[in-house]
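Whiteboard transcription, Tuesday session. T.W. wrote the structure tokens on the left side:
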């Protein structure tokens, strides 16, 4: 079984600028905190060990929420101010044993309930030594990371980046923790730079369609995410 990680170390500056006082991971969508929703989806998928990275300024408040809301789970909490999404991602990977496979998701990615469980079921049928990306054809991102897919229908990714493609990444990643060795002594400006580097090194990438995914980057995204969740029947 996979271990898991949640990236929740962003500044949330767009929400602060609009007067939101809660840490972004604790903002509610359809009555549930973003952080709680991410954990619930991982639990549905059968994941037992969850690592989470928070910025120092919100770590205590978010940790208190976890202890109160999920007392049955033993979390590994990382409190660290990171300079980029890549640093947050690599910090979580480096906290794992190198023989682990990790599924990592961002705290602000909203997908159809149960979809993460489907992702893991499909991923178990794929090679275990490469990178598997959750992707979507629904594009609502200011700077989407495009991928191109093989025409053979085998889920292989043939290109990453550029101004167009068959789909875009959506905040769900599965990869072996030992892949951090490929990033030794390198500083990446963003997660996309790390992923692109791995691809150029010849690591195999595959894609799994996550359907429509809402990335809660701005206050107005909260309304869109609530409408999306209400339009989808929750699956057991």
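and on the right, the sequence the group agreed on:
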């Amino acid at each position: 079984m996979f271990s898991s990680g949640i990236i929740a170390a962003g500044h949330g500056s767009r929400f602060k600028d609009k007067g939101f006082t809660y840490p972004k991971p604790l903002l509610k969508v359809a009555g549930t905190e973003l952080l709680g929703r991410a954990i619930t989806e991982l639990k549905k998928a059968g994941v037992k060990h969850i690592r989470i990275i928070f910025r120092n300024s919100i770590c205590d408040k978010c940790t208190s929420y976890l202890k109160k809301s999920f007392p049955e789970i033993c979390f590994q909490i990382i409190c660290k101010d990171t300079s980029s999404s890549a640093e947050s991602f690599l910090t979580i990977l480096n906290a794992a044993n190198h023989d682990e496979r990790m599924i990592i998701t961002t705290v602000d990615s909203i997908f159809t309930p149960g979809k993460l469980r489907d992702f893991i079921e499909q991923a178990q049928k794929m090679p275990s030594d490469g990178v598997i990306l959750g992707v979507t054809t629904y594009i609502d991102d200011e700077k989407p990371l495009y991928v191109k897919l093989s025409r053979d229908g085998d889920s292989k990714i043939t290109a990453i980046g550029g101004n167009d493609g068959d789909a875009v990444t959506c905040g769900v990643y599965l990869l072996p923790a030992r892949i951090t060795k490929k990033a030794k002594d390198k500083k990446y400006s963003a997660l996309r730079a790390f992923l692109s580097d791995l691809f150029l090194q010849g690591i195999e990438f595959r894609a799994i369609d996550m359907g429509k995914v809402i990335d809660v980057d701005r206050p107005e995204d909260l309304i869109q995410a609530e409408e999306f969740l209400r339009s989808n029947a929750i699956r057991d």
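Someone added at the bottom: The first helix runs from residue 13 to 17.
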